[in-house]
Amino acid sequence: MRDIDQATTLPEAVLEPILDREPAAPRVTWYDDATGARIELSGLTLANWAAKTGNLIRDEFGLTPGARVAVLLPAHWQTAAVLLGCWWAGTEVVLHADPDAELVFAAADRLAGTEDAPEVAALSLDPMGGPVRDLPIGVTDYATAVRVHGDQFLPGGTGAALDGMPVSEVLTEARKSAARQGFAEGDRVLSSASWDTPAELIDGYLAVLTAGASLVQVANPDPALRERRVASERVTCIL
Predict the structure, then answer these.
(1) If you ran DSSP here, which 8-state letter would residue 192 be given?
(2) What pLDDT, on a 0 to 100 scale, did the predictor assign at position 159?
(3) CA angle 230-72-185, nearest 5°?
(4) β-strand pairing of 139-141 with 120-123
(5) Are strands 26-32 and 37-42 parallel, antiparallel or unpaired?
(6) Residues 108-162 pLDDT 10s
């Protein structure tokens, strides 16, 4: 097992311990209470989606470590994979529109304003990962493009990881957040928090993975379903 303090990329630091320990256990469980959708990804499935995304970034979009990628996506199971894929490819993630971004991953309803970006990949955020229909010319459909790429990825280096922070700093902040929130290995963390800022992303996603816990992320939460979900998902922490 790799020492996470010696890891080059965030996925090496947070995913490899999970894959060594419990690859088939649930790692991200996503609900949308507005539609009734539920999707669950094991650590291995999350890693496969992330590796495919990393290969897409490197081989199809031609980005190299240190490139800047804007991720304009809500807290979602596909976003969880996109972020890890960006970090596996060694790229820097920013969570806002950025004129210096070489690639933008955007929800279909956030494509306005991305016209000048060198590369844009659109996500439908369909629960089953379906494609976006009737995309503008020049915009790549993530769901269609990512599937043809390999589910193994060999990192080739890294630059800043998140909004100027290097991997080591992000890991340190994620560990501090996990300790502050009481996350531990094996916990099931229920959350409906957004990932719109670096602090929110670290608190609501990376802290969970760094602790070896798993995430139950709920979009459009229905308060009436909370108590039953806590029981059915064996939730141990609520964010």
Answers:
(1) -
(2) 84
(3) 35
(4) parallel
(5) antiparallel
(6) 999 998 999 999 999 999 888 789 988 988 999 999 999 999 988 888 888 899 9
| 70, 108 Cβ separation under 8 angstroms | no
Distance CA 91, CA 119 (A): 14
Q: Which of 149, 141, 112, 104 is nearest to 124 (CA)?
A: 141
Those residues whose C-beta lies under 8 Å from the C-beta of residue 156, and which sit 6 or more positions away, are: 58, 64, 65, 90
Strands (E), the chain: 26-32, 37-42, 68-72, 92-94, 103-107, 120-123, 139-141, 188-191, 214-219, 237-238
CA separation, residue 121 to residues 54, 82, 97, 150 (Å): 13, 11, 14, 18
The token pair at 236 is 């141990």
pTM of the model: 0.94
- Please name the residue that has the structure tokens 């379906």: 130
> What tokens were used for 196?
């719109």
> What residue type is assigned to position 133 of the chain?
R
d(CA 62, CA 213): 33
Q: Tell me how many degrees the CA angle 150-80-160 measures, rounded to the nearest 5.
A: 85
| Dihedral sign, Cα of residue 196, residue 197, residue 200, residue 206 | positive
- DSSP 3-state of 115: coil
Residue with tokens 């256990």: 25
